[in-house]
Amino acid sequence: MSLMLKLSSTLLLCASLMAATDAEVITFLKSGIGSNPNITNLQVDVSGKKNIASMSGWQAYFMKIEADVKQGNDIRHINQNGTYFVNGNVIAPELINLKTGERYNDTVTPDFSNAFYTKSNRISGEITAPQKVAIFSDPLCPFCRRYVPEALSYMAKYPKTFAVYYYHFPLSGLHPAAVTLTKAAIAAEQDGIDNAVLTLYKVDINASEKDEQKILNAFNKTFGTKIDKEDIRRSSVIKQFQFDQNVAESMMVSGTPTVFFNGQKDPSKTKYKDVKVK
């Protein structure tokens, strides 16, 4: 759970609102979260809403929460997305279907816009392939390093079945080196290097490394390239990097790997295995 949600979840479990409007939801969250004396400059906005078809009367509110949080002698700027559930006069930070066990925080997301399926993000498969798979990943995330290469390699064998779209989503707080690696991979992709994403997962570097040159040296050693600091600062690289972050934010992505299968979030990350390939 994110820091901001930890600060607010206890306050929300028993909360009630009378026929809540967007403004009332915002005011309520501001009041609850803002009551913590360590939180300042709090901003709360509704970024979207969605009815939950299988839970009559419930709506998912997709919220953008930004604030400064004091931790010891340090102040951290928090910019997070959160999902809250509203039904009439009740609001809650988590919703679980008692009969099915489905945790709606894991499955309910904004709609995946067709505009997110771009040529530059498609790394394998034909554009007309019936199954669209979108993967958000950090190349230094331990689970990603086990999952992503296997999933990508499998789907690449069936280009008429799977169109695979990849979005660079480095978790800078956990893996600082991933930011530079990601930008170097984008530069390599733009320079025409084949299979840049798959090769990215072979780079051997300490995830905590912050020295750009050391990170680029490790990248170039693996790729056999000469990507330098000027390359990762190219406007086209920064534009693609920011596009991927914006898509992740729009889709409420907060961890890696996150997978969408035909526009729907796939918590299992394995739906592609159930498809009859051709």
Overview of the structural elements:
- The protein has 278 residues and is of the alpha+beta class.
- It folds into 2 domains: 3-107, no CATH class; 114-274, 3-Layer(aba) Sandwich (Glutaredoxin), CATH 3.40.30.
- Helix content is 33%, strand content 24%.
- The chain has 9 helices and 9 strands.
- It has helices at residues 3-12, 22-34, 104-107, 142-156, 177-190, 196-200, 212-223, 229-232, 235-250, and strands at 39-51, 59-71, 74-87, 90-92, 122-124, 131-137, 162-168, 258-261, 264-265.
- A hairpin with a 2-residue loop joins strand 2 (59-71) and strand 3.
Q: Uncertain runs with pLDDT below 50, 5 residues or more?
A: 9-15
How are the strands of the largest sheet arranged? Answer: 5-7-6-8-9
Give the helix level as a range of percent.
25-40%
What is the number of helical segments per DSSP (H or I, 4+ residues)?
9
Estimate the global geometry from the Cα principal axes: globular
Strand content: 15-25%
Per CATH, the superfamily of the largest domain is Glutaredoxin
Largest sheet: 5 strands, mixed
CATH topology of the largest domain: Glutaredoxin
Q: What is Rg? A: 20 Å
Q: Determine the mean pLDDT.
A: 91
CATH architectural type of the largest domain: 3-Layer(aba) Sandwich
How far do the termini sit from each other?
40 Å
Give the SSE layout:
Elements: H1 3-12, H2 22-34, E1 39-51, E2 59-71, E3 74-87, E4 90-92, H3 104-107, E5 122-124, E6 131-137, H4 142-156, E7 162-168, H5 177-190, H6 196-200, H7 212-223, H8 229-232, H9 235-250, E8 258-261, E9 264-265
Parallel strand pairs: 6-7
Antiparallel strand pairs: 1-2, 2-3, 3-4, 5-7, 6-8, 8-9
